[in-house]
């Protein structure tokens, strides 16, 4: 809690935060005449948008008390923003010798509430210095005839000049860090520091004291030697931080577990070394991955000489609690040798159980853990082979074993780094490992995270820092020169597509442009004369397409950025030891290139080579934010004619994912989450869950893993078509999600060690496990009915027709179940050679697969559709309650049946598989040649050379066995609570594999997840888990869904009961089914989530509402629109002949009131609706399909529910008042409401919002006229 005082010494509690654009009106109210005289007339919104850092101070009532905006350059009138360092030198300011773009910011605006100006100015400056640890100077430039106001005059002093220099109309003022947040004094620890440090250790973690006794710290300090040393940070004579370091590191073991090739294996280079990387651990070309922190610069790239003077660098700001990184050699031994991630050292006790003296037991030169690997002991590396029989290499690293810091000073943790490198002058690397669940604290934000090997399950994260990373004063960014070419060649020679990078650099050096005239800009990162990074970008020529297709306006106000300020990033490479300067590199590129926004696309593997090859994999991807793709309108171009959007807006270029960074984001840290989150199953729910986590802009998940039989999918086989192949390409989950080295289904879960075991024995470690495998179509198990004795369906036992095939028995080669796009591809390869194909199932997918076979040119006479009995037959194969009709609409069902008959497909109803005849083949397997079925009357045998199973659909038996062996509660399905948790607090589940626990009384079909939108379920699951990691989320919103229970809550723990945990979530998104059907039909069905009643029962319901139907299935233009009793669209059914159906548009109609649909009900009563397809292709309807139209509707609702004054109720309040008096509103009351709506000004306000919506989105909606056009 922070206080500021008024001029009368009245305290006020304040909160410092980043400024939001919504603060602009309140900031404008603080502008005083003195503000205008100092800074001129400033567009506050534009300043917030363009500033690198803007800070707002607010009180407990969220009232804005002060604001300041900071940029990395002075005002444009002062000098060229890209060259202000030269201006300082030309003006002979003494500070020019030390000021660099890395350690300097400029104050562009400051306002504060009267009586709070002095306190606000001081607090803002202190906040900025803490937020940007590298910062040393804050500059203020004012006109020479102006003086800073008193609040600023106490903080900023005129900068001293060495001589007169040139004349300038502006005066430079400077604020130094040491006056507000000075560097810490770091010294060797002594025994007397014990009294200061022990309370700190007890407050943060008491495990060490419990393990080694009350005086373990004094013993550790007393036992210091050349290999094990301890440092403290001192403030005003008191120790506020402690660090223990050791020179013993087992680099061989670290090489086994982590990708250290870019750091020379943490060994000293040797002239005879021939570095060969370990066995390839990269994924196959078909499933490429972009590891979040994998450095790509080769280890052999020369680095800055170690003898160069060191200037301390500081870590990035991260809002978190003070962290205690316990990383002793024994802790790492324990972590790598076992699966425990507990950072305590309790396992280091000897078998006798006595507390050892730490100076003897812990400070030994070798690991004290018997039988365990020696991590901090020098051994030969296994990650590299050394030629010429060279002996074991010399380790080049020391370790940080123990670290803690007072919260008040944690942002200065990096002040330790220069001192510890002086203690080990012959070592170039400092390493530290932390358990996965330990939040990333400020110290390790300076370090580079090393990517674990895909075969490693080590429960720690490894961070590395190189000595030359301290050279902040020597690190600079400048435009590339011709002389840099050879150094860039050496820097990038191991990067994929480096030839294209060099070709772009040559184009820049020769003409600064492409052959087509596109501007090219190239910048290099230079460290004391050596090139350590390269960045090449072009002007973004397709910015209209980017704006129209991606939600970049989630991060910028587009109208405040000129067209030439958008740039397209093609190449970005930075030596890994300088990776913590990546954001500064980008910030400088934007400043010197006069840009404000940067975009980097990631193309799928299926993209044309000429498109994807122009972009190399960049090392700074982690510092950018992924941008969500926008839902596009399917425009009827012929109907719109000249009123259609421009070609750039409706561009149909290959889909790609886009990443973005702008000026504001260069100084905005991300919260790094190293927790291992493993998702089992690449279902719609799993993809939606991963999408939600990956697209959190302020979070960085380093350990997301997908365990799936096919790996990350390129296309999903689902009747909902939640994710198309284009949608998956625009997500580019491969950039953020890891695949285990072996893909396969889950065969076991080891809950004790927290491992998922795949079918081939691979172990995938997890901290949080998410199971969303769903249900799959299984190979049916023949009932074995005696068809020779004329057995019928009535002779079968209950459930016999719903049994899957025994997995221990071999499956015939020509029998398959279709569950994903891979199966579809496999089916297309052998189906054409099969003279007779049987499709077994009655689901929607069975009809869709039948149409697939027909569309591949297979004659209908070779296809037989066998439908098992419906639910009410006594041999149920479906939990649906629509009598087995997947369409649940007689007209549609009849049209599809007719389409099958016209195609020549034979249909057999109420048949149950009894047996099949097998023959051996030349491949050592078997094939079926005939199948037998039981029917209600007599058995039937058919020849068969291909059997496609789409029945039964149930949980895979291998998944069930894995869950059962793990002792997870399974009650027909995996049991979860309202927060998606199983009986294991570390295991979550969602989707059709689950059911709610019986205490919720939600056992009916209506409560099962298959009746709801899979994408919404995945989103809700992610939002339930995110509060465990996101410091900005205190919990879920009970109004939207039940809050999550803490993951640490175990049985027996006391916690406050939450009433919302007794309720299951309420889902709002519609359930969608679409696909191609026999007869050449394209089908779309959108319905209310939840239980689907039979169509006849829906019509008989008193609350059914009204239906609007046009066309007929026979004519191929059937459209049924069902409105509920509140006149909202609740069901949409379309059946058209042909493939073109604007499904994305029509789905948007769900939940929309008929008044938004151009008075649909009134037009229908007047007989004006002849063709609903034509009606919804009219230009007026394009706004309904816009992706931001739901937000507009919510704005209107909020506007009508907002009171206009103390005695002026809102329109909504007036309506509620009338309804409370009388349930029905008569015509006179309606007229009174209309007059009230108009006279109070709300009508004008709604019209204004509508015009603003159309104007702001005019590039998508040019068919609407603006005021003044007509």
TrEMBL record:
Residues 1065-1184 form the CFAP61 dimerisation domain. Coiled coil: none annotated. It comes from the Eukaryota. Residues 16-269 form the Cilia- and flagella-associated protein 61 N-terminal domain. Residues 325-347 have a biased composition (Polar residues). Residues 307-347, 1036-1060 are annotated as: Disordered. It holds the Pfam family CFAP61_N. This is Cilia- and flagella-associated protein 61 N-terminal domain-containing protein. It comes from Ciona savignyi (Pacific transparent sea squirt).
